[in-house]
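Sat 14:20. Reprocessing the chain from the morning session after the first attempt stalled halfway. Input below, unchanged.
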Amino acid sequence: MTGEVVTESVDASTWDELQTVFGSKGDASSCWCQWFKLSRSDWDAATREDTRALLHEQVEQGSPGVIARIDGEPVGWAAVEPFSAYPALGRSPITRRREGDPEDVWAVTCFVVRIEYRKRGVARALLAGALEHARERGATIVEGYPVDPEARPSLTAAERYHGTVSLFRDGGFEEVRRPSATRAIMRRTLTA
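Finished this time. Tokens:
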């Protein structure tokens, strides 16, 4: 066993592995990374089966993110797509565009790491994989919307699905705005 975390962009062939990552309990198994894609009324009406089917369709149509594996075992996922793929980001007072913001950004919105694989560098590998995924698809700027456990140490694991400020900082992102004490807008420019 090497224990090395490897990532790749998801596609139809990785769907069964994604189902393993999302599991059948907890927030991830209900959301299936649809919170930022649906209107509030559609979100409120959606069932677990609906959100699962939506992500499955999105995976079939393209690649909305990356999967991580350790020794071949699927252990994590990060969602990364153009900002425009996430309508709720444009409506949120935290993430909506402001004057001077670049228009062509990609957004890393969500991390899911299976509980038994946490604290093994999976989120760091996922962020690096998300950057490469975006770069390969023409992205020049990538944003994240992480939480800051230093500002509020009581943040639960469920509240950290955006990633943490330190994770993004270590990934080469710079803080461009602090919409609240516990949330940051962080951005990284990609080179070819």
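The radius of gyration is 16 Å.
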